[in-house]
Amino acid sequence: MITAMIRRIAQVMEGASLILGAACLFYMVCVVGLNVLARIIFDATGTALNLMIPGAIEQVSYLLGVVALAGLTASLSRGMIAVDFLVTRLPSKGQALVARFWFLVLTALALVLCWLFYEDMLATYARGEESQDLRVPMFLIYGLFALQSLALVVVALREMLTSQGEHGEIS
């Protein structure tokens, strides 16, 4: 019953992470591409025409963290990639135990990340910190990181409970 509920929640979080990661990655590519073109125009006009996107580096750097966490969350559904000839030689129960152990470690790491990002969100909210160029409240950024870490916790927990030792590179 609990495993079924965790599976449903994890599936929703995986889908949301995939959509969020894809949207952020698309936005990052657009910002970088447009800034490269704007830089060419800027140089060609002798600095007379500046079409560069304000805070582009800041936008891309914060979104990179979201993309990394979202990508990790979305990629766990096919099992971890195991570059270990020893694990593949174990019987299927041994492979499942090893996989579940590593998902337990990943769950613990994701819990720590979630807690730390949550604490940073509270601290930056209390101090009223904003990003350098765009003046975006930092608690929003840390809150998004905390939510993505929470999604990683749920998906890793599901994999820890249900993994049969399958590997992403073999599937």
TrEMBL record:
Give GO cellular component annotations, separated by semicolons: plasma membrane
Q: Which residues form the signal peptide?
A: none
Q: What task does this protein carry out? A: Part of the tripartite ATP-independent periplasmic (TRAP) transport system.
Q: Pfam families annotated for this entry?
A: DctQ
Q: What is this protein called?
A: TRAP transporter small permease protein
Membrane disposition: Multi-pass membrane protein
| Coiled-coil segments | none
Ranges that cross the membrane: 12-42, 62-87, 99-118, 138-157
Similarity section: Belongs to the TRAP transporter small permease family.
Chain ranges of the Tripartite ATP-independent periplasmic transporters DctQ component domain: 28-161
Q: Which InterPro entries match?
A: DctQ, TRAP_DctQ
Arranged from A to Z, the UniProt key words for this protein are: Cell inner membrane, Cell membrane, Membrane, Plasmid, Transmembrane, Transmembrane helix, Transport
Please name the source species.
Pseudooceanicola algae
Q: Describe its assembly.
A: The complex comprises the extracytoplasmic solute receptor protein and the two transmembrane proteins.
Compartments (UniProt record): Cell inner membrane
Q: Report the GO molecular function annotations.
A: transmembrane transporter activity
Keyword Protein transport included in the entry's annotation? no
Question: Mind listing the GO biological process terms from this record?
Answer: C4-dicarboxylate transport
